[in-house]
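Narrative summary of target 7.
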Amino acid sequence: MLEMIGRGESLRGFTVADKIVGKAAALLFAILQPDALHARVLSEGGAAVLEKYKIPYTCDVRTAKIINRAGTDICPMERTVLAIDDPQEALAALRQTAARLRAGAQ
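Modeled conformation, tokenized:
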């Protein structure tokens, strides 16, 4: 999604499906503006963002938070946006986190 946003793309006119949608992904979807979204797993924070930006959604499972791959802590992308509610501010912060993760830093 970061690359799509960087290319100036939009998801208007599309319904999207994603395996896991937390607050971080939802804030990026707020920028991309799909017509609707389905998530296999949706966090409470993600649902709140989708509701705020009027993106209709469905999900199979709703959870309190999104956990990292190791199952030991909150997802690093989610941690990045814990105190962020603005999609553009989230975008900048998530780009930094993604770069740090690609570089191998935790």
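The mean pLDDT is 96.
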